Amino acid sequence: MTRTAKLIGIMVSVVLLTACADAELTQLERTLANIRQSPGGQPPVIAVALPESRTLAYLYSEDRSPFLPPDAIAQDDANRSEGALAPDQQRTPEPLERFSLQDLRLVGTMRMAGRQVAMIASPDGNVTSVKEGNYMGTDYGRIAQISAQEIRVTERVFTQREGWQQRQVSLAINENNE
């Protein structure tokens, strides 16, 4: 490279670096210095005037509230307490009605004072003696019969289509369970 080419390269570099210097940079520095020296404080509060509101008429105020169940559902709830097979909701629940029948286990039966009695183990670790007519299970199950190896329970279940229905289930002593 010749000396002239080097000299031209240096001059171009100086021109480019000079072009990077901003003449207004000193002006910016003076403005920032004035801001730093001025006292601070709270910014001015600007209150915005809100437009006056007007009352609107709700066209559907006579209709059913969207927060209440439709009439069909409300009537179904009323129908749940009606019917010949509807369970007595006023009756005090018995201890074994807290558990589903699948969670209860028949551990034994015995005869006491001429009556057959069954021993039922619940998931909470308790064993409860029951007789015919006692209730157990979450589906309003009532003990209909106790034999030596099983108990028969009549449950009451509600379906939307057919209302209250009875179903027969049984718990048997399982020799494999401990």
From TrEMBL:
Which keywords does the record carry? Signal
The reply to whether NADP figures as a keyword in the UniProt entry is no
InterPro entries attached to this UniProt entry = PilP
Question: By its UniProt entry, which Gene3D superfamilies does this protein fall under?
Answer: 2.30.30.830
**Protein species of origin:** Vreelandella maris
Key word Signal present in the record?
A: yes
What is this protein identified as? Pilus assembly protein PilP
Q: Classify the source by domain of life.
A: Bacteria
Signal peptide positions (record): 1-21
